[in-house]
Amino acid sequence: MINVEEKKVEEQKQIDLEIDEKTENNEKQENITIDTHSKKNKIGLIIGIIILVLIFLLLILSTIFALINSKSNKIVKGIYIENVDMSDITEEEAKNILTELAEKTKKNEILFKYKEIETPITYEALEVNFDIDSAIKDAYSLGRKGNIFQNNFDILKTWINGKSIKLNFSFDENVIKQVCENINNTSADSIVEPSYYVENDKIIITSGKKGIKVKEDELMQTVKDSIKLNSDSSILIDVQVSEEEPSAIDLEKIRSEIYKEVKDAYYTTNPFTIYPEVNGVDFDIENAKTIISEPKEQYEIPLIITKAEKTVQEIGTEAFPDLLATFSTKYNAGDTNRTTNLKLSAGKINGTVLLPGDEFSYNKIVGERTIQAGYKMAATFSGGKVVDGLGGGICQISSTLYDAVVMANLDVTVRRNHQFVTSYLPGGKDATVVWGSQDFKFVNSRKYPVRITATVSGGVATVQVWGVKEEVEYDITIETKKTATIPYTTQYVKDSTLPKGTQKVVQNGNNGSKYEAYKVMRLNGEVVSRTLLSKDTYNAKNKIVKIGTK
Questions:
Q1: Separation of alpha carbons 47 and 55, rounded Å
Q2: What is the distance between the alpha carbons of residues 115 and 67, in angstroms, rounded to a whole number?
Q3: CA-CA distances (angstroms) from residue 550 to 35, 136, 313, 497?
Q4: Would you tell me how many other CB atoms lie within 10 Å of the CB of residue 413?
Q5: What does the alpha-carbon distance between residue 113 and residue 464 come to, in Å, rounded to a whole number?
């Protein structure tokens, strides 16, 4: 029994000892944990203090950095405008640099080329205008438009990576459109749309032909991509074209335009009004459809004409008592072919009467220029050169008519200038015509009918507009001014018929130009209005030199 009791006592002591040891170990562990937490708290506190100090220092440094930059009047380092370094210079200095570069680029040239047609246009003639002020404003504002931290970040980022600012610009898109029109109208493979004119008792319809048309939108974008400020070289642009089919002949439309009911001429005195004769005009549309069903270049449709019994000519000159306008141009009477063409085209328009609201179409009145119609070969503009062409010279009559029409205060609806400045009129006063593509049109916008007379004699072509004066009549002139000059270039052509080492000038060069034309109206000698009629671009005529290779 004693041994058992003692054994129990010993076991209990052993258990108590283990409990004490565990308790002591737990207390030590708790002390260690407390010490660790205490150390961590101290370290966190120290780190927090350091961070606060760093933030404070950063704030102070940022403030100082921002204050320094805010007091600076210079553009941040690392900024470029169109690859021109603007670092550490003032806005004024930047403007002087860019303005000088823009001034230098005025003579930069873009050469538009399609086959044999070359059209050089300078930046100055294009009226290229670089938006320097906006670009400099954007450059100067970097590092100055946000909060302190954003500004500092932008500045440091620009220092490291740099920043390029695009320089926007504008230019006269009408110049490019005229380049397109010149190519469309003068290229040997230009599209020709169906056209018609009335000749005696028939309609002559030309079916047109497939041809090229300049991709205007694409060319416009190419020009925008090509214009650069910091460049001193010419740019060659190969003009891209598409091949187009002409429109189908629209007989219904033609009939609606030429159909007239017969009416005799007469006039009234109170109020004074002239009613010119109208010959009845019509054609058998079913017969016309049969005629044009066969593929041909030209068709003749017989007209059904019913003559008026009394004409304006029979009424007498009292029907058109007043000379509203007269205009003349000179021509070389010794050039018999050209003189013939002038007389033929003038004869076509001579005696034309227009009622109020009627539109005159030069191509429809004069008709196609053909050998059968009597036209001769004479000098004309084509493909960027002066060449002989059938009907050369008739544009002198359309141009003379244009000036008379403006001076008579009639509304011009369709008109375009020549490819080059003509010999018979200054820039801004001409009107070109091309069969199948370019017409000259105007409307009788007066209260009374008008009558056109045209004569060609003794080296002078004259067009007059007759009618009845209204209550207020203005003295009208066309004033023009040259706004830019386009220098010509020299084109060298190899010629195997000339001895090697020799040269022959086959065409002298002439500078191109830009003109503005104004319609100036005066009453009792005082100017009452000055209206812009047109802005015209005339190509430079290249000097062509043949180089012998024989």
A1: 12
A2: 62
A3: 108, 59, 65, 6
A4: 14
A5: 41
Q: Report yes or no: 368 and 196 within 8 Å, Cβ to Cβ.
A: no
**Cis bond before residue 271 (omega within 30° of 0):** yes
Q: What are the domain boundaries of the chain?
A: 251-317
Mind listing the pLDDT tens digit of every residue in the chain (550 residues)? 446 666 666 766 676 666 666 666 666 566 655 565 666 667 767 776 777 666 555 555 555 555 555 566 788 888 888 888 888 888 888 889 888 888 888 888 888 999 888 888 888 889 999 998 988 888 888 877 766 667 677 777 777 787 888 888 999 999 999 899 888 888 888 888 899 998 889 999 998 889 999 999 999 999 999 888 877 677 899 999 999 899 999 999 999 999 999 998 888 877 777 787 888 999 999 999 999 999 898 999 999 999 998 887 677 667 788 999 999 999 999 899 999 999 999 999 998 888 889 999 999 999 888 888 888 877 676 655 665 666 688 999 999 999 999 999 999 999 999 988 998 999 999 999 988 889 999 999 998 889 999 999 999 999 999 998 998 999 999 999 999 988 888 888 888 888 888 888 888 888 889 999 999 999 999 999 999 999 999 988 888 888 988 8
Burial of residue 273 (CB within 10 Å: 0-12, 13-18, 19+) is: middle
104: burial class by Cβ within 10 Å (0-12, 13-18, 19+)? Answer: middle
> What are 470's two structure tokens?
């209204």
